[in-house]
Amino acid sequence: MSRGSTKWGVSDSKHVPAAERELLYVEIIRCAVAWAVAEADPAEIDRINIHQASLRAMQRAILALAPLPDVVLVDAFRVPDLPMAQRGVAHGDRRCSAIAAASIIAKVTRDRQMRELHDRDPRYGFDRHKGYATADHLDAVARYGYSDVHRRSFRPSARFDTID
Questions:
Q1: Which of 51, 57, 98, 151 is within CB 3.0–4.6 Å of 38 for a Cys-Cys bond?
Q2: Which stretches in the chain have pLDDT values below 50?
Q3: Sign of torsion, CA 40 133 16 122?
Q4: Does residue 26 lie in a domain region?
Q5: What gap in Å lies between CA 56 and CA 51, rounded to an integer?
Q6: pLDDT tens digits for 62-90?
């Protein structure tokens, strides 16, 4: 196991190469007692902000597990309104295999979704930047406008706001 890795080499998804994440994803879902993914759509993010929408999506994913866990381990913070105990683990995606596995499931799911979005509309380059605010992504939004999958709050204000 490499430094900062956990069981099976599972580690923070940002530090695992994409091909290895795909292999780990298959192994994780095969071995997990339960797993679930939930998302927040652009309108929800725009309405309550990306952090709150992320917390609500995590809550939905946790509550979709069957069986429900007795305890939830979370990477450094609390998920609101859960009916079970939870514990925040600082640097949890590097120190806890359950949190690392969840980060891999989430990252692989998102990367696959970004490739599907790219296949539907390659102008935005979702296959390359995975939805992050890279220069290429911001240039595509400036050139083509928002797509249906963009949150309207996705914009550095100085880049898109003009003074008339």
A1: 57
A2: 1-6, 158, 161-164
A3: positive
A4: yes
A5: 9
A6: 999 999 999 999 998 899 999 999 999 99
